[in-house]
Design goal:
- The protein is mainly α and 131 residues long.
- The protein has 2 domains: 93 residues, no CATH class; 36 residues.
- It contains 7 helices and no strands.
């Protein structure tokens, strides 16, 4: 197996992928780009509850969809390599409001989930202490 050259030989000194400062909105957008990866554990419970006996088929369809999205991202990454490529892609192909709409939807959803969780926890505590 041939030995890989060190990174310093591949990238010329002084080159960088982008400017070294992110705005607040850029940082939020990049953090939300990886959010769906971590939500799989939470969504699987809802898939089983909604799909019932068709759960294996729904998981298979979701896997095919994820492979298609991954393929599109790989095609894009060949053209534009760098950190935050998903955010960069969205900024190139859509207006700003389209990029911020999922942020707003996720904020509303997770605010609702937190509200329900807090209410249930409060009820549980009140019932357990018989207040």
């Amino acid at each position: 197996m041939p030995e890989q050259p060190p990174i310093s030989k591949i990238v010329a000194p002084g080159q960088r992928l982008g400017r070294p400062i992110l705005t607040t909105w850029e940082a939020i957008a990049q953090s939300l780009a990886i959010g769906p990866i971590f939500s799989t554990a939470f969504v699987a419970v809802f898939v089983v509850a909604a799909a019932g006996a068709a759960t294996p088929l729904s998981i298979l369809l979701a896997a095919v969809g994820m492979l298609c999205v991954g393929w599109i991202i790989a095609l894009y990454a060949r053209r534009y390599a760098g950190a935050g490529a998903i955010y960069d892609y969205l900024r190139r192909v859509s207006p700003l409001w389209v990029c911020l709409l999922p942020v707003f939807i996720l904020w509303v959803f997770w605010s609702w989930v937190a509200w329900v969780a807090i209410r249930r926890l409060a009820c549980l505590l009140l019932l357990s202490f018989r207040i």
